[in-house]
Amino acid sequence: MKIPFVDLRAQYDHIKPEIDAAIASVIADSAFVGGYENRYVRNFEEAFADYLKAVHCIGCANGTDSIEILLKAMNIGPGDEVIVPAHSWISTSEAVTTVGARPVFVDTHPDYYTLDARLIEASITPRTKAIIAVHLYGLAAEMDEILAVARKHRLRVLEDCAQAHGAEYKGTKVGTLGDAASFSFFPGKNLGAYGDAGCMVTKDPELARRARMLANHGQLAKHNHVIEGRNSRLDGLQAAVLGVKLKHLPQWTALRRKHAQRYDSLLAPLGVHTPSAPAYSSHVYHLYVVQFVNREMVQRDLSQAGISTGVHYPKALPFLTAYANHKHAPEDFPVAARHMDRVLSLPMYPELTAEQIESVVSAVAAAVGG
Ligand SMILES: *Cc1c(COP(=O)(O)O)cnc(C)c1O
84 CB less than 6 Å from ligand 1? Predict the structure, then answer.
């Protein structure tokens, strides 16, 4: 049985009439480009804000721009430092560098894969301006601890929610806990567009105003360029697709959780290191990540059995060539260094069937047993 890592085609098959109608409607209206007057974009921004119980939601071109624009809106730039987790997708640190600031890496929590809140304080300097908390794999970071350190040192907190649409921390949806939050709607995310897309969320009206201007050439009304910005708009087709998919997101999230529980219960007896889901969290399992000491071998065996897996990520950020100038050694980030050699993401998507899950588990059993 061939099992893909994600199956966007299966998802489309379930919602085809709704998607096709939404796309046809945008085309009929020629409502292609985002901005202040596109009703598809505005409708999605409002619907997503409602879903999160957030105040302001501003669409933009992708989830990397959203981090960068929010940092800019916070006036973070040259001479500043921003704390980021050692283990994330490169966008998190890349956006810091793009605004002219310096990313300062902090090691991963040994159980949760998110930023280890206990280690933040030791990395704060007089130049530190913000902390980016990434809710990696769909699990909320330790927000109370992160917000407490931030308050004590007067730092901004930006949540990178690219992998955590709908995840909760103590009953509150992530994206509404810090000063601002960034979402990606890359097609493979839990809420994915049919191309690149992203958004920014905040309850701070001034931050929202600046972010909206920065994403659209510094204007809030046509030809009134208050500042210089850029072109990073959410377009009408993507907004319409996202609007359709958002209605299905709660059900898709419930299915991801159900699949994760099934994996947990079948894999734990095999001695496999399954994901932690601490009591404070409601995990949305963007990725279902397990660990193996002999990861390469298990991945190869699964691949031979027709099962696609992923590694998120094979090199922690401080060890990438892009950050060679930071001159970090594995012992600077022992947990991230260990995880990067062991983590393996198993197939995870709402449309996964019980039979597929059992095939993945059998293949894992064969790989670890033999
Ligand atoms: C996907 C992702 C991003 C960036 O999203 P894009 O829309 O691809 O630019 C940022 N941070 C994390 C943790 C991600 O997984």
Answer: no
CA 234 to chain centre: 17
Looking up tokens 């931050």 gives 207
Tell me the per-residue pLDDT of 151-172, one tens digit each, with 9 for 90 and over: 999 999 999 999 999 999 999 9
Which distant-in-sequence residues (6+ apart) come within 8 Å of 74 by Cβ?
Answer: 129, 130, 156, 158, 179, 180, 207
Distance 88 CA to ligand 1 centre (A): 9
Q: In the chain, what percentage of residues exceed pLDDT 70?
A: 99
Of 180, 156, 204, 226, the closest CA to residue 60 belongs to 180
**Which residues, in sequence order, are CB contacts of 237 under 8 Å at separation 6+?**
23, 26, 27, 32, 40, 194, 195
Task: Check pocket membership of 141 for ligand 1, CB cut-off 6 A.
Answer: no
**Contacting residues for 271 by C-beta, under 8 A, at least 6 apart:** 368
138 lines ligand 1 (CB under 6 A): no
Phi, psi of 306, rounded to the nearest 5 degrees: 90, 15
Model-level pTM?
Answer: 0.97
Cα distance between residue 147 and residue 150, in whole Å: 5
Nearest to 154 by CA among 119, 178, 129, 179: 129
Closest of 160, 143, 247 to residue 199, by C-alpha? 160
**Ligand 1 mean position, distance from CA 164 (Å):** 11
Mean pLDDT, the chain, integer: 97
How many CA atoms does the CB half-sphere of 240 hold within 13 Å?
A: 23
CB 318 within 8 A of CB 325: no
Give pLDDT tens digits for 58-102: 999 999 999 999 999 999 999 999 999 999 999 999 999 999 999
Q: Which among 68, 160, 185, 232 is the best mutation to test ligand 1's pocket, defined by most ligand atoms within 8 Å of the CB?
A: 160
**CA neighbor of 93 nearest in space, from 316, 283, 311, 267:** 316
Q: 10 Å Cβ neighbour count for 143?
A: 23
